[in-house]
Amino acid sequence: MEAPPVTVMPVTGGTINMMEYLLQGSVLDQALDSLLHRLRGLCDNMEPEIFMDHELVYLLKGQQGNPFILRARRSLSHPTAPWHLRYTGQPEVGDKSRHALVRNCVDVAASHSLPEFLNEMGFRMDHEFVANGHIFRKGAMKVVVTKLSRILVPGNTENTERLSLSYLVELSVSAPAGQDTVSEDMRSFAEQLKPLVHLEKIDPSKQRH
Fold first, then answer.
1. How far apart are the C-alpha atoms of 19 and 4, rounded to whole Å?
2. CA-based Rg of the chain, rounded to a whole angstrom?
3. DSSP, res 194
4. pLDDT on residue 91
5. From CA 138, how far away is CA 149, in angstroms rounded?
6. Would you state the torsion angle of the CA atoms of residues 207, 154, 152, 85, taken in this order, to the nearest 10 degrees?
7. DSSP bridge pairs for 30
8. Which letter, b or e, does each residue of 170-204 get, where b requires 16 or more Cβ atoms within 10 Å of its Cβ?
């Protein structure tokens, strides 16, 4: 089944309905420490946040066209924290000169009954995974370094298997529509991470999941 690229965004507070600017790349496990060291030097003067989340991807199939996709996520590190529901729209075609992928993003906090609610609404869970890693911040920019693991037994987040020998690296900014100058700031920051990691604008038409 085809779906949008996996985008790993840790559980955060608040309600967001803005545009997301995004660059993605990956780094091999053996290069992780070097990347984290570089990020500590480039980002705001604070220790990175550590997260471990469980994400469930839900689909609602219509009569025609692509299914409607929602992502429900909960923190395994803080079990009493609210769940979060995330929707990301189709990437804007827009200006080819943009340095980052741009898409609408809605992120809302929810109660622990979120999975039951989505099932009652007609959504069905397509797949689930565990994401753990580090979050760095540089002004409005957020850098997330994530290890993805598949869940071997449905619902059992302690029985997992790593998906690859690399970490997903995402650089993102949430901003009102039309703030395209942020993509230039992102490009400049991404240049400082080379050659450890090459962060690029995604071509959704070439993505398969």
1. 16
2. 17
3. T
4. 85
5. 27
6. 40
7. none
8. bbbbbbeeeebebbebbbebbeebeebbebebbee
Answer for the pair 84, 12: CB distance below 8 angstroms, yes or no: yes
pLDDT tens for 173-209 read 998 877 878 999 999 999 999 999 999 997 665 554 4
Tokens (6 digits) for 162: 């790593």
155: left (phi over 0), alpha (psi -120 to 50) or beta: left
103 is written with which tokens? 């898409």
Give yes or no for a contact between 129 and 53, defined as CB atoms under 8 angstroms apart.
no
Query: Across residues 74-89, what is the average pLDDT?
Result: 95
Strands 83-88 and 160-162 turn out to be unpaired
Cα–Cα distance measured from residue 135 to residue 202, given in angstroms and rounded to the nearest whole number: 21
Please name the residues in contact with 26: beta carbons below 8 A apart, sequence gap of 6 or more. Answer: 164, 166, 167, 168, 169, 197
Residue 92 has pLDDT above 90, yes or no: no
Coil, strand or helix: which one is 114? helix
